[in-house]
Design brief:
The structure holds 2 protein chains of 2 kinds. Chain A is an alpha/beta fold. Helices cover 34% and strands 26% of the residues of chain A. Chain A contains 7 helices and 10 strands. In chain A, the strands form 2 sheets. Chain A has a 6-stranded mixed sheet, sandwiched between helices. Chain A has a 4-stranded antiparallel sheet with strand order 2-1-4-5, covered by helices on one side. In chain A, a hairpin with a 3-residue loop joins β1 and β2. In chain A, α4 packs across α5. Chain B is α+β, with helices and mostly antiparallel strands. Helix content of chain B is 72%, strand content 9%. Chain B is built from 9 helices and 4 strands. A 4-stranded antiparallel sheet of chain B has the order 2-3-1-4. Chain B starts with a helix and ends with a helix. The chains are: A alpha/beta, B alpha+beta. The interface between A and B is medium-sized, with 29 and 22 residues. Bound molecules: adenosine-5'-triphosphate and magnesium ion. The site of magnesium ion has 4 residues of chain A, from α1. Adenosine-5'-triphosphate (ATP) binds next to β2 and α1 of chain A.
């Protein structure tokens, strides 16, 4: 899906401005790294795209959806079309890894058997097949993170929003996850990934959008983690 | 349908998760609807008695000791609205009394000389004419006194109005109490699944789908509670009717298979609607709150 954000500002209360006058246009099938220091507004931007937050000012269009004015049923439809990997995973404590993935598929209408099969499949993709019957508390941070990635990609989203999807992974696993994300992107899914992972950004060169104090300070095709004069 | 089986699995999970609250909800619904049923039976029975009494189109006129029974009977028979007159001599009255008392009729002989007055049993064409006829009869010099059902019915009607107001009051009160408990049970269930609901909505589950297990939970309590209430009330009422029939046979209580069916239908219908409404409101409020972007 194509994204167009124009003049998006997000303030919290009187004096916190998380995003300021953001113009961002992402064509269908693009891969975008969202980088920037802590507190620069990356999560806020993704949450606006997930329609958890409404911009204080400005327009957000994703595909045919105008996120400012979505009726309730449209919100559901929109969220089914996209996937999100949350920075804090948001797994359900009382369900196994497999059930965590299967339940979102069931929640959007898949029959149980199909949901379980598909859940097993995506867990295999992220290397969690052997841990599929464990509960979140029995999984390491990185393993929980991989389950949350599996959940986000399970229903083949048209837009995948990833908030620090490799934050807790070692370089080797991070590389494997990156391969998974790249192959999803290759199949036509638009992908936005907020990250602090300098190594990945530099190794798998893609478009880089840098935020600083809520403003876009750099938007570079095939950029590096740090600003790179040569390009 | 498949989302339905998912919801049912979830509902069972919710019921099992908090057995304490489950038991309390069940008991409350049972008690509340037990009282609702009681007030229904009370209202029904008073109404029944009144209609029986009102339906009696007979005025009993007791005559002065020396009045001419046959002559008066002929005269009254010619009055408008009178369907028929049956003269009852003191001797006949005594026989009737003996017959009514059955095996205790021997007691009558203790009275010595027959103290019963002669009377006319006047049958009237319709209920609205009863009091007019009664007034006319009482104005005749030969008539000592008249007795007719209307008098009793009026008193009963006053009583029944009181009973109806009372049961209405009880109904409203019980309804409110039941609604409050059901609403809170659902709220607690929702609260225990707050995180899950949030995630479900974030991945695009339809509000109806998210709400379904909670609405089913409410319906489950509404249904089981009122089923139990109907069973308990039906059983107690039946025993009550039986014991009344044995000890006070002249009191006619409503008692038919249809009554029990009606009672069960009213209680279950009421319980299901109430629980559906309460759980729907509770879950709907939570979902619109959860889906509101900040
Ligand atoms: N709900 C909120 N209420 C108030 N302030 C908020 C809220 N959410 C975010 N902020 C503020 O907005 C700013 C941007 O936060 P955001 O989470 O978008 O940063 P980030 O770029 O994702 O940081 P990190 O790299 O640490 O994840 C921060 O200063 C944060 O304190
Ligand atoms: Mg963040």
């Amino acid at each position: 899906m194509e994204i167009r954000m124009s003049g998006v500002t997000k303030t919290f209360g009187e004096d916190i401005t998380a995003l300021e006058d953001v113009f961002l246009s992402v064509p269908k099938g693009d891969f975008v790294y969202l980088v920037g220091p802590t507190g620069s507004g990356k999560t806020t931007l993704l949450r606006i795209l997930n329609r958890e937050l409404l911009p204080s000012r400005g327009q957000v269009l994703v595909g045919e959806y105008n996120l400012r004015k979505l009726r309730r049923t449209k919100v559901c439809q929109y969220r089914r079309a996209i996937g999100m990997v949350f920075q804090d995973y948001r797994l359900l404590e009382d369900r196994t890894a497999l059930e965590n993935v299967a339940f979102v598929l069931e929640a959007v209408g898949a029959p149980r058997k199909e949901a379980l099969d598909r859940a097993g499949e995506v867990l295999d993709c992220v290397g969690m097949w052997r841990r599929r019957f464990l509960y979140p508390r029995e999984l390491s941070g990185g393993e929980q993170q991989r389950v949350s990635i599996a959940r986000a990609i399970a229903n083949d989203p048209l837009l995948l929003l990833c908030d620090e999807p490799t934050g807790n992974l070692d370089p080797q696993t991070a590389g494997e996850i990156m391969q998974v994300l790249l192959s999803i992107n290759a199949s036509g899914t638009t992908l936005i990934m907020a990250t602090h992972n300098r190594y990945l950004v530099d190794a798998y060169r893609q478009r880089v959008v840098e935020l600083k104090m809520g403003r876009i300070v750099r938007d570079q095709e095939r950029g590096r983690y740090d600003f790179d004069e040569e390009l | 349908m498949r989302s339905f089986s998912f919801a049912i699995r979830d509902t069972v999970r919710l019921i099992r998760r908090s057995p304490g609250i489950s038991g309390l909800t069940f008991l409350t619904v049972l008690v509340v609807f037990f009282f609702v049923g009681c007030s229904f039976l009370l209202a029904l029975n008073t109404r029944h008695v009144i209609s029986v009494v009102e339906g009696e189109l007979v005025v009993q006129a007791y005559l002065q000791p020396k009045a001419d029974l046959e002559g008066l009977a002929k005269k009254v028979e010619k009055m408008p609205h009178v369907r028929g007159v049956r003269p009852i001599s003191p001797e006949q009255a005594l026989e009737l009394l003996k017959a009514r008392l059955g095996n205790q009729s021997a007691a009558v002989t203790l009275l010595g000389e027959n103290p019963l007055p002669a009377s006319l049993e006047v049958r009237v064409d319709k209920a609205s004419s009863v009091s007019g006829i009664a007034r006319e009869l009482v104005s005749m010099p030969e008539v000592e006194d008249v007795v007719y059902a209307g008098k009793v019915a009026e008193k009963l009607a006053r009583l029944s109005r009181f009973a109806e107001i009372f049961s209405l009051f009880l109904l409203v009160f019980a309804g409110l109490a039941g609604a409050l408990v059901l609403y809170n049970t659902i709220r607690v269930a929702i609260y225990s699944r707050k995180q899950e609901i949030e995630v479900m909505l974030l991945v695009g589950a339809m509000p109806g789908f998210v709400a379904l297990p909670f609405v089913l939970l409410g319906l489950f309590w509404g249904l089981t509670g009122t089923l139990a209430a109907s069973a308990v009330l039906g059983f107690l009422y039946k025993s009550f009717v039986n014991s009344v029939q044995n000890t006070l046979p002249f009191i006619q209580l409503v008692d038919s298979p249809q009554l029990y069916l009606k009672l069960a239908l009213i209680l279950i219908g009421g319980g299901v609607s109430l629980s559906w409404l309460c759980s729907w409101i509770a879950v709907e409020r939570h979902i619109s709150e959860a889906m509101k972007p900040s």
